[in-house]
Amino acid sequence: MRTDQTFNTGIEELVLAVSLELAAATWKVALHDGRREQPAVHTVAEPQAAARLQAVLDLIERHKETWSLPAGARTVVSYEAGQDAFWICRALQARGIECYVVDPASIPVERHKRRAKTDRLDAIKLVINLRAWLRGERDRMHVVHVPSPQDEASRQLMRDRGELQKEVLQHRDRIRKLLATLGCWDEVGHKAFAGRLASNEVKCHDGAPLPPELRERLLRECERLALAEQQLATLEKTRQVSVPAPARKRSDDLARLKGIGEVGASRLALELFWREFSNRRQVGACVGLVPQPYDSGESHVDQGISKQGNRRVRALLIEMAWSWLRYQPGSALTQWFNQRTQGTGPNRRARRIAIVAVARRLAIALWRYLKDGVIPEGAQLKSA
């Protein structure tokens, strides 16, 4: 896919830039060929996704003809990343149209106290930034890396597992709190609790039976809890088989290291290391663990980490960093952490700040381990 422009004859390449401002009911489409002052803006409101996409393609062809553009003129489409994900990008690329998905937070905006914001203005702003980006002004917007359909679909395995675990805990906690209102401190996590509840063996604090309304609600909660537990157990049995072979190999390699479990390794393989990184800075920026300084004039402030990218991976890496300190005491990362926190005493804030740096260094070390086979310095592998 082309991302640059050539100027062999000293004349700028003719490009039809198109931006899409997506909404549930309508799409705003802005088109600009660089030869007029203002872009053309249209609205497409077809109720079906395929028909709405075809309406965009018809607009592109119609403006090529109206503006006397060559039939083979380069067409570039962009839209902001959101709930529509990447299906539009894949559909356009399948039709031979260049398409980019843009990080919405990377688009510069006016800093006035109040500014006008409409879908039309956003579409115009996006198409102007797209033309500037194609000319080489890379600070106008940042392009999101589009995963393959298989990589995107494989993420649902671990994400669904996390949601099911959360749902199980929510049901158990809700049952426990409802019983606590009557002074019943029964063990709701035991599998026999639903049977005891159905046979009226669960009593209030004074031995009185539960109110019928509360008992019926608890029975419904137990049914939902049993369903969530059954789905979670089924997913656990089929999870390893469902993971694609390349991701399974990455997961197995990560799980060989002490301090990294099977679930954490699978999450990293599916959520982070499906991407190809060029250097360690890209790894740190992708997980949002890089520092964001504020250095302007006399102001020198550390704003903390950027918190960009995948929040699930970022939270996982923090947990994994604590586990790494426990199970890899002889590694260089653990020794670095101990040296930085030595003498802080009960200062937990200093340890929490240092563990973020350990998480970033751990992500980079694991990337090098998968890419080049370099085991993190001082780290130990699990016994066969």
UniProtKB/TrEMBL annotation:
<protein>
    <submittedName>
        <fullName>IS110 family transposase</fullName>
    </submittedName>
</protein>
<dbReference type="Pfam" id="PF01548">
    <property type="entry name" value="DEDD_Tnp_IS110"/>
</dbReference>
<feature type="domain" description="Transposase IS110-like N-terminal">
    <location>
        <begin position="72"/>
        <end position="180"/>
    </location>
</feature>
<dbReference type="InterPro" id="IPR047650">
    <property type="entry name" value="Transpos_IS110"/>
</dbReference>
<dbReference type="InterPro" id="IPR003346">
    <property type="entry name" value="Transposase_20"/>
</dbReference>
<dbReference type="Pfam" id="PF02371">
    <property type="entry name" value="Transposase_20"/>
</dbReference>
<feature type="domain" description="Transposase IS116/IS110/IS902 C-terminal">
    <location>
        <begin position="254"/>
        <end position="329"/>
    </location>
</feature>
<dbReference type="InterPro" id="IPR002525">
    <property type="entry name" value="Transp_IS110-like_N"/>
</dbReference>
